[in-house]
Design goal:
406 residues, alpha+beta, 2 domains, five-stranded antiparallel sheet, 17% strand
Length: 406
């Protein structure tokens, strides 16, 4: 029972700053319509109401305070597991966390079975949706970053999955149509916090440190004179840096725009699988291709400047001991320092979190960035994926059969 978890955790931690307190409660041994379980808590404002009209720094400050509270709980192996705006409050001038009904802590009796959904689906990372028993610390970090995005953008629900700051459609900057240092820092933090590999997400303490540093206003000491030679050297290095940065951005925009234009054509192939299986198509710059050996080699190429990918994927969901099965159609490209483009396309299969099985692959092929050959090379990869789609469906059937499908 969620009320039991709620009362147990409050008895365990006592009255604590940053946690919405329980005033009193009733937990009947045999609840009924006339004798229900209940909790009494102070009347507090929801975070969205309390932040009404606030700027991004105020939003970041509030989430930083909440991250610091969660960090303290994590130090005691206590994990909330249901972080979202509806469970965050403002009471007596303090930001507070409420609704500990799904909390995890040592010696707690299991409330949810392995593989069950925990928390609100819009805020859940992939490792929870796919089942199993993932580490709760990175789950809290992921959910808090999704909450930060919702509060910063004013959207009703977060974007699901990984949010790379290089993809305009998933950033705070693109949602608000503004660019400044605060927005850039927040988008980079959200990118790290939503990384598909939980082990690569920052700890909750690191999230708190970054947000607190972002909103701190330390006065500068301008009394020490600057050395002219040092200033000149810094200026020259900065100019060279920005020239390189401009070239990087140019290549990044090429990679993003090229595969963004390609994505609808890849989705059209993927929708054939969607219609056959009845499972929804997932598409975009999904990081699943990072587990493909050849894409890993592109990422690690010593001359790699920018890598990007387009994916259309259909997933057969996990249930009753059966692992999920993913049929993946993907194209990845890598731009080298000499403007050579490496392109690879493939049809892949993944069962659960197991290794990628390559059903069909073409590449890596090479061309010069922006050339006709580069365009023709991408067209060739698309044709190859469609031509070999039957082989992908055969592999999907085989994977389903191995798990007792019919």
């Amino acid at each position: 029972m969620r009320f039991t978890s709620e009362t147990e955790i409050h008895e365990r931690i006592g009255v604590r700053k940053g946690v919405l307190p329980v005033i009193t409660y009733s937990l009947p041994e045999n609840p009924s319509r006339g004798k229900r379980a209940w909790l009494a808590m102070p009347v507090a404002d929801h975070i969205e109401q309390a932040l009404g009209g606030a700027d991004l720094r105020q939003v970041a400050r509030s989430i930083g305070t909440i991250a610091r509270t969660l960090s303290g709980l994590h130090d005691e192996d206590i994990y909330h597991r249901d972080i979202k705006p509806a469970n965050l409050f403002h009471l007596n001038g303090e930001w507070c966390i409420g609704d500990f009904g799904l909390v995890s802590f040592p010696e707690k009796d299991a409330l949810t079975r392995t593989g069950d959904y925990v928390g609100s689906k819009h805020y859940l990372p992939r490792e929870v949706i796919e089942g199993g028993n993932p580490d709760s610390g990175p789950v809290d970090v992921y959910e808090l970053s999704k909450t930060l995005w919702v509060l910063a953008t004013g959207r009703q629900h977060p974007i699901e999955g990984y949010q790379p700051s290089s993809i305009p459609g998933v950033t705070i900057a693109s949602a608000l149509q503004i660019k400044d240092e605060t927005v850039s820092h927040l988008d980079l933090l959200i990118e790290r916090c939503t990384h598909p590999d939980p082990s690569k997400r920052p700890s909750m303490s690191e999230v708190a440190d970054e947000l607190e540093a972002l909103v701190s206003e330390q006065p500068s000491d301008l009394s020490t004179p600057l050395n002219a030679a040092v200033v000149g050297g810094t200026k020259a290095r900065s100019e060279a840096w920005m020239r390189d940065h401009s070239l990087y951005r140019e290549r990044d925009e090429y990679a993003v725009s090229t595969l963004a234009a390609l994505q609808p054509r890849l989705d059209a192939i993927g929708r054939e699988v969607e219609r056959i299986t009845g499972q929804p198509l997932q598409s975009g710059a999904i990081s699943v291709l990072n587990e493909w050996d050849v894409v890993g080699e592109l990422h690690n190429h010593p001359e790699n400047v920018r890598s990007h990918q387009a994916v259309a994927m259909v997933q057969m969901p996990a249930f009753e001991g059966r692992e999920s099965v993913h049929l993946i159609l993907g194209i990845a490209l890598c731009i080298l320092r000499d403007d050579t483009v490496l392109m690879v396309g493939g049809i892949l299969l993944q069962v659960g979190r197991g290794p990628i099985e390559v059903i069909w692959q073409d590449g890596p092929n090479t061309a010069l960035r922006g050339s006709v050959k580069a365009k023709e090379g991408l067209d060739q990869l698309l044709r190859g994926i469609r031509t070999n789609l039957n082989a992908g469906l055969v592999a999907l059937n085989r994977a389903i059969d191995r798990q007792g499908g019919s």
